Amino acid sequence: MTLKLEVFESREESEAATPPRASVAEEERLAAYEQGYSAGWEDAANAASQEQGRMTADLARSIQALGFTFHDARMHVLKALAPLMQEIACRLLPGVAREALAPTVLETLTPLAEELAEAPVELVLNPAARAPVENLLGQATGLPLRLVEEPTLSEGQVYLRLGETEAQIDLDRATSELTAAVRNFFGLSEQDRTA
Description:
By secondary structure, this protein is α+β, with helices and mostly antiparallel strands. The chain has a domain at 60-194: hypothetical protein PF0899 fold. It has helices at residues 11-17, 19-114, 127-140, 171-194; strands at 121-125, 145-149, 157-162, 165-170. A four-stranded mixed beta sheet has the order 2-1-3-4. Keywords: Cell projection, Cilium, Flagellum.
């Protein structure tokens, strides 16, 4: 029978002999781990940056598409409204202005009449506008009026004279300015559409 003897070494000796191998292997393993960990973080950061760039580009394209869609819709609505607005400005406003002349004269005359004693108010107007103005003012005020017909004035123009004070009502000019503003607005909108 063979005898086997147990080897008794001190633990300190065996630990002192093996640690260099264990620590070199451990250091290599830690370095490899750190390198892999860093590469993983770098890949994740690159992927996140690329995803953010893609999302930003997609958002910019969507906003641009919405802008074009809104602009196109606005142009379509304005193009559809242009004939109606121009008809209103050209056909309706002059009639409305003619009907508004007498009430406008009354509205302008009322504050001036408070300053009067018995002096007559002189109204200079077109002969065609005389009847409606005279009827309304005769019913609404008890002022002494003197109507002077002036054929060179348009039907929408009236001058009110009270001694040294004079006021002008020019609904024709207001109508033509409003009509021009409507035309210019839709003309500019048309230019926007073609630009």
